[in-house]
Amino acid sequence: MLNFAKPPQDKALLDEATDFTPRFDDKGLVTAVVTDARDNAVLMLAHMNAEALSLTIETGFAHYYSRSRNAIWKKGETSGNLQKVEQMLTDCDQDAILLKVSMSGHDAACHTGRRSCFYRAVSASDGTAVLETIADHRAFDPKTVYGK
Amino acid sequence: MLNFAKPPQDKALLDEATDFTPRFDDKGLVTAVVTDARDNAVLMLAHMNAEALSLTIETGFAHYYSRSRNAIWKKGETSGNLQKVEQMLTDCDQDAILLKVSMSGHDAACHTGRRSCFYRAVSASDGTAVLETIADHRAFDPKTVYGK
């Protein structure tokens, strides 16, 4: 497993650093944004602990940490929709990760069978917020892929 | 302020819902990914509480919640780099927001003066993780814009 050094106390040093010192939150996680390397479409958002981050860097395939299952999760292990990491970036204060990936399998990231988890637009209507589905193509049937 | 209804207990209902019931975390926040509406480039990652989310929907300009300052923050208020929301989306389980924005001012989202906060690539070298700057153009000088 890769060894991640502790971030400097002075946050101003993070901006221009050439050492990767991820700033894990109080639960030991960083947030990962996942985009399709072909067109930059945002596919999903997930979390990584140090082990998931290390596995992702070392294997070249996206690994996340499931907060609901408290377990490391190799994306696509069940569905076949593996995410090969074409490029990994971090942000100015090193508490977020951007993965540009190529998907295999059904070419879909969402457990609903859609390419992206972001398939609904938010708008206001009479003082409440409503959703409208703007991308509804299903690349796979979740019942078939994940069982019931 | 918009009224956000509580999410359903059964998480499976969130996927296909037409009501927006954001799942705020234990600190009352959702994560927002911000992309450039022109080319989908990921610009930054931020957090929103209910008030920031409501202000963003109602005004059409991105508002975030600063965890370090414990305050609502209208993006660009100091720098002039406002973010006009072209589209807001949410993800399958409604705990993340995607904003597609048009920037004004210097056309830059990062406090370092760069267009995107994700300007460094991560890779492994001899068992540690290192960063390489891959996008170094500064649209503004932070010292001039934010003072010292």
Automatic annotation (TrEMBL), chains A, B:
Its EC number is 3.5.4.19. Pathway: Amino-acid biosynthesis; L-histidine biosynthesis; L-histidine from 5-phospho-alpha-D-ribose 1-diphosphate: step 3/9. It catalyses: 1-(5-phospho-beta-D-ribosyl)-5'-AMP + H2O = 1-(5-phospho-beta-D-ribosyl)-5-[(5-phospho-beta-D-ribosylamino)methylideneamino]imidazole-4-carboxamide. Residues 44-119 form the Phosphoribosyl-AMP cyclohydrolase domain. GO terms for molecular function: phosphoribosyl-AMP cyclohydrolase activity. It is found in: Cytoplasm. It comes from the Bacteria. Its main location: cytoplasm. It holds the Pfam family PRA-CH. Catalyzes the hydrolysis of the adenine ring of phosphoribosyl-AMP. Homodimer. Belongs to the PRA-CH family. This is Phosphoribosyl-AMP cyclohydrolase. It comes from Martelella mangrovi. The gene is hisI.
